[in-house]
Structures are given as structure tokens and as C-alpha cells.
Specification:
With about 90 residues, the chain is an alpha+beta fold. It has a single domain, classed as 2-Layer Sandwich (Heat Shock Protein 90), CATH 3.30.565.10. A 4-stranded antiparallel sheet has the order 1-2-4-3, covered by helices on one side. A hairpin with a 6-residue loop joins strand 1 and strand 2. The longest helix is centred in the middle third of the chain and has 11 residues. The two termini are about 20 Å apart.
């Protein structure tokens, strides 16, 4: 997990924090990401657990953004959380 940057918040005080979580494993299966993208599950088409849903719901509740990039070398999850870094703590990015 790496704090990639802080950027001025779109609204309000402070800066948004942008984190990246990287792994070099097989990646998150497409059917798991597809279920998140649809924002709904059915009895026949759903993910295998609650982990990604909990992350997605938490970031949504904070007004943030969540994205996934899966390739041959693993997965990168990017998380943007709004207004969590005070102006005095920003790295100036």
C-alpha cells in the first residue's frame, strides 16, 4: 500500500489522498470486478465474497473513488479518499 499523491480536494478544505494497493498475484477475476461494476448481484451472477463489496461501499460512503487495473503482472487498486489530508500536511502534489 502506497500513498501515491495528495491533490487539492474538489470541494472543501484539505487534499484528497490517492492510495495504490499492488500485488503480483494472479489478479482479481473478471467476474468479481464485473459484479462490482453492475452494482448489483443476482442469484446466478455474483461475486464469491463480501470483501470487495465492503471496500466499494466504504469508499462510496466517503465520497471517494475506487478503480482496478488487472494485468499479467497482478492487480493495482487505486483509492481516492476526499479531503482527508490537512492543507498543512500535503506534500504539495
Amino acid at each position: 500500500v502506497t500513498l501515491v499523491e495528495t491533490v487539492p480536494a474538489d470541494a472543501g478544505d484539505g487534499h484528497d489522498a490517492v492510495f495504490e494497493i499492488r500485488d503480483d498475484g494472479p489478479g482479481i477475476p473478471d467476474h468479481e470486478l464485473d459484479a462490482l461494476g453492475r452494482e448489483a448481484e443476482t442469484a446466478l451472477d455474483h461475486g464469491s465474497g463480501l470483501g470487495l463489496w465492503l471496500v466499494s461501499w466504504s469508499i462510496d460512503a466517503l465520497g471517494g473513488e475506487l478503480s482496478f487495473e488487472t494485468g499479467d503482472d497482478g492487480t493495482v487498486v487505486s483509492v481516492r479518499v476526499p479531503g482527508v489530508v490537512d492543507d498543512g500536511e500535503s506534500d504539495g502534489s
